[in-house]
């Protein structure tokens, strides 16, 4: 196995810039200690960002749910539009959509994606000849785009907290525990440095307590990352209170062994007590600010969560934006609008907001993905991005200001080169697969729109 050494003026390590005399190299898929002369790759090198929450097929409907309906629009009316769109997608369509999306992610600086995957079966819930067909389509897309994939097949069983059956549009998502475990067993042997497996409980309204306990007790579930949508909407909180006698996060913490391998996606509506308990559990809060804004979800209590020692990461969810910069920017801006103060994510005097956001999201995203990444250190997977030091946005910027400028100085792309798993996927802003991916995506979307 060959080892390639490289250098830069500044490397990002543990939340701070280090000068380029660090002996870093790539050996196979991972970082190693350099033992040979190094090639200079740029001035500023950051770890690649994990994207901890994705519904890939929704990328193709971005912008198609922005027309007001007859009444007040909400998450629940948006969901009906999404269900109608999902009805027509087959495995080949999903591969084309996901490949385009994943190429966009890599170009933006995401190097791992956690795919919260519930579009399992054919129309009306008829299984494909290969029950893993849709999962395999996502895996092929990730390989073509060169992004690391944590696949999170979703258990989805009921249509509400009261146990109502799934409606017609939800049949494609349906599994019982036995069929779901069989899918996991099919996929588990395929894991490698670029593909890992986790499990997702769609939500408390979609997974009865008995099914949750049965799944988590299976051998294959032990040790895998566990993700769940939770407390995204006020209506969801009210329904949980009415049926289960507790708020969703409160109920989950009381009834499951929630810890560092768990990711609670959104967790938007929390009491102070829930915020403290979630933080102390070690679970990751999976925050998706652009989607949460687009759907009118609300704002996560970020400052209180950080102060309580909580861990968070970011995801692009419905992909109305595919940019870690925009997710982190709007995570901070939402807090500024809520509190009418500035620099909310920086909790100590003189702390940089950009530094605090980027480092916390790296740490939380890697934990949510269940991989050793998000750090430029020997042993970690070799994911990195090189900023464009030729950009006028970085003119006259000392290293202490670079991440703040990266996140808050505008929308000009600053991610010039991206390495994933030891291989360059983006050089000088170009991805090798972007032309073919865009062509295939366009064909699929035009056909879906005409249907």
Describe this entry's structure for a reader:
α2 packs parallel to α3 (133-145). With 451 residues, this protein is an alpha/beta fold. The chain contains 14 helices and 18 strands. The model has no long low-confidence stretch (mean pLDDT 94). It is 36% helix and 21% strand. Strands 1, 2, 3, 4, 5, 15, 16, 17 and 18 form a 9-stranded mixed β-sheet that branches. The protein has helices spanning 75-86, 91-108, 133-145, 177-187, 209-216, 234-244, 248-255, 272-281, 289-294, 302-307, 324-339, 353-369, 399-408, 434-450; strands at residues 3-13, 16-19, 24-27, 30-33, 39-47, 49-54, 110-117, 148-155, 195-197, 199-201, 226-230, 262-266, 284-287, 311-314, 384-387, 415-420, 423-427, 430-431.
Biggest β-sheet, characterized? 9 strands, mixed
Share in helix: 25-40%
The gyration radius over C-alpha positions equals 21 Å
Question: What distance separates the N and C termini?
Answer: 50 Å
Average pLDDT over all residues: 94
Secondary structure category: alpha/beta
Report the strand count: 18
- Overall shape: globular
Number of helices in the DSSP assignment:
14
Which stretches are low in confidence, meaning pLDDT under 50 for 5 or more residues running? none
Strand content: 15-25%
């Amino acid at each position: 196995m060959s080892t390639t050494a490289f250098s830069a003026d500044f490397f990002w390590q543990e939340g701070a810039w280090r000068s380029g005399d660090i002996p870093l190299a790539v050996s196979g898929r991972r970082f190693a200690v350099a033992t040979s002369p190094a090639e200079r790759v740029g001035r500023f090198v950051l770890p690649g960002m994990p994207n901890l929450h994705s519904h890939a097929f929704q990328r193709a409907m971005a912008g198609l749910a922005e027309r007001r309906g007859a009444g007040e629009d909400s998450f629940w009316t948006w969901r009906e539009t999404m269900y109608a769109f999902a009805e027509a997608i087959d495995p080949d369509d999903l591969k084309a959509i996901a490949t385009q999306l994943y190429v966009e992610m890599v170009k933006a600086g995401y190097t791992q994606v956690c795919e919260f995957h519930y579009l399992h079966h054919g129309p009306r819930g008829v299984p494909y000849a290969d029950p893993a067909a849709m999962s395999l389509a996502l895996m092929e897309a990730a390989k073509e785009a060169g992004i690391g994939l944590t696949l999170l097949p979703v258990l989805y069983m009921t249509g509400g907290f009261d146990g109502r059956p799934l409606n017609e549009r939800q049949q494609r998502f349906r599994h019982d525990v036995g069929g779901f475990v069989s899918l996991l067993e099919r996929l588990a042997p395929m894991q490698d440095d670029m593909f890992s497996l986790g499990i997702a409980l769609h939500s408390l309204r979609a997974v009865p307590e008995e099914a949750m306990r049965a799944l988590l007790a299976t051998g294959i579930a032990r040790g895998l990352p566990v993700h769940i949508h939770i407390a995204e909407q006020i209506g969801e909180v009210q329904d949980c209170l009415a049926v289960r006698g507790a708020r969703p996060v409160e109920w989950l913490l009381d009834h499951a062994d929630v810890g560092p391998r768990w990711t609670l996606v959104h967790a938007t509506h929390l009491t102070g007590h829930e915020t403290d308990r979630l933080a102390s559990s070690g679970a990751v809060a999976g925050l998706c600010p652009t989607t949460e804004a687009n759907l009118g979800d609300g704002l996560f209590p970020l400052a209180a969560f950080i102060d309580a020692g909580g861990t968070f990461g970011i995801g692009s969810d419905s992909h109305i934006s595919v940019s870690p910069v925009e997710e982190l920017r709007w995570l901070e801006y939402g807090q500024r609008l809520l509190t009418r103060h500035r620099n909310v994510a920086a909790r100590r005097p003189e702390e940089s907001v950009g530094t605090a956001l980027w480092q916390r999201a790296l740490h939380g995203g890697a934990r949510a993905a269940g991989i050793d990444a998000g750090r430029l250190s020997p042993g970690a997977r070799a994911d990195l991005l090189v900023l464009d030091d030729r950009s006028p946005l970085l003119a006259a910027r000392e290293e202490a200001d670079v991440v703040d400028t990266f996140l808050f100085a505008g929308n000009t792309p600053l991610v010039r080169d991206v390495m994933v798993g030891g291989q360059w996927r983006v050089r000088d802003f170009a991805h090798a697969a972007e032309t073919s991916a865009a062509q295939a995506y366009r064909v699929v979307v035009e056909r879906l729109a005409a249907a």
